[in-house]
Design brief:
The protein is 45% helix and 12% strand. The chain is an alpha/beta fold. The chain has one domain (6-278): Rossmann fold (3-Layer(aba) Sandwich), CATH 3.40.50.720. Strands 3-2-1-4-5-6-7-8 form an eight-stranded mixed sheet, sandwiched between helices. The chain is globular, with a radius of gyration of 17 Å.
Length: 279
């Protein structure tokens, strides 16, 4: 493990984000807690005695403000953990005009990361992304209809697509900035019980896997178990403990992915289209 790091964790007011923040704080790092809920975020920060920021990723102006505040407050950022996200219910547009699942899971962390990119490169930072196992059974990602205006939205399909976008974003971030000193990795924490994750989804299968007592007992891990890889990646040394640009499951790279996740042209196109959308 490297010496003390400045580690920003989004989605840190609950679940694996909060569990990771606690463990990283215990291990001696300076943790910055970011969450949507003022009450929950303040509670975690007060428990740990750490800095905190409140930002709703359904509002891109709040993401821009968060980036500006982080840039002004910290001389460096060693780790940015893009952990905020989740599945949502019926199709909803944000105040920015984007489909909610797409914005919160992909567009907002893309915006936050790119706004901080100069500081992240200067810090030789690691950018860590939480995602699902393989981006679901997405067969096509239409870069001209990321908002599902033409295709029509099925909430769980939008979530699977957004998680595939997380993988593509991580790989393209690695391609663009690894030679400048920035590292990036994406990981799957497993099915986690005992959190509010997925509380807004209408997917019967997702609710069963995360809320049903028997399913949770058989399949679900604890928030601490889910946070293990985030902590490992945050504390580890890229090139020694883990490799940039890779997808990790149980601290191992090489998990089987949606075939689209390896499409370098699609990854470049998603980056360019995302940049256009955020202006």
């Amino acid at each position: 493990m490297d010496s003390q790091k400045i580690i920003v964790v989004t989605g840190a007011s609950d679940g694996i984000g909060a569990a990771a923040a606690r463990q990283l704080h215990r291990n001696g790092h300076r943790v910055v807690v970011v969450g949507r809920s003022t009450e929950k975020t303040q509670a975690v920060a007060a428990e740990l005695g750490t800095d905190h920021f409140v930002a709703d990723f359904a509002r891109l102006d709040e993401v821009r403000r968060l980036a500006a505040d982080l840039d002004a407050e910290y001389p460096r950022i060693d780790v940015l953990a893009n952990n905020a996200g989740g599945p949502f219910g019926d199709p909803t547009k944000t105040v920015d005009g984007f489909e909610k699942t797409f914005q919160i899971n992909h567009l907002a962390p893309f915006l936050l990361t790119t706004l901080l990119i100069e500081k992240l490169v200067e810090s030789r930072a690691s950018v860590i992304q939480t995602t699902t196992l393989h981006g679901g059974n997405v067969r096509k990602l239409d870069l001209d209809d990321l908002n599902y205006d033409r295709a029509g939205l099925q909430p769980i399909r939008a979530y699977n697509a957004a998680k595939l976008e997380n993988v593509l974003f991580t790989k393209e971030l690695h391609r663009r900035y690894y030679d400048q000193g920035l590292s990036a990795a994406v990981f799957y924490p497993g099915i986690i019980a005992g959190t509010n994750f997925g509380s807004e989804t209408t997917s019967a299968l997702f609710k069963f896997l995360t809320k049903n007592r028997l399913a949770k007992a058989l399949l679900g891990g604890t928030p601490e178990e889910g946070a293990d890889q985030l902590v490992w990646l945050a504390e580890g040394s890229p090139g020694n403990d883990w490799e940039s640009g890779e997808f990790y499951v149980k601290r191992k790279a090489g998990a089987r992915l949606n075939k689209l996740a390896g499409d370098a042209e699609l990854a470049r196109g998603l980056w360019d289209r995302s940049a256009q959308l955020i202006g």
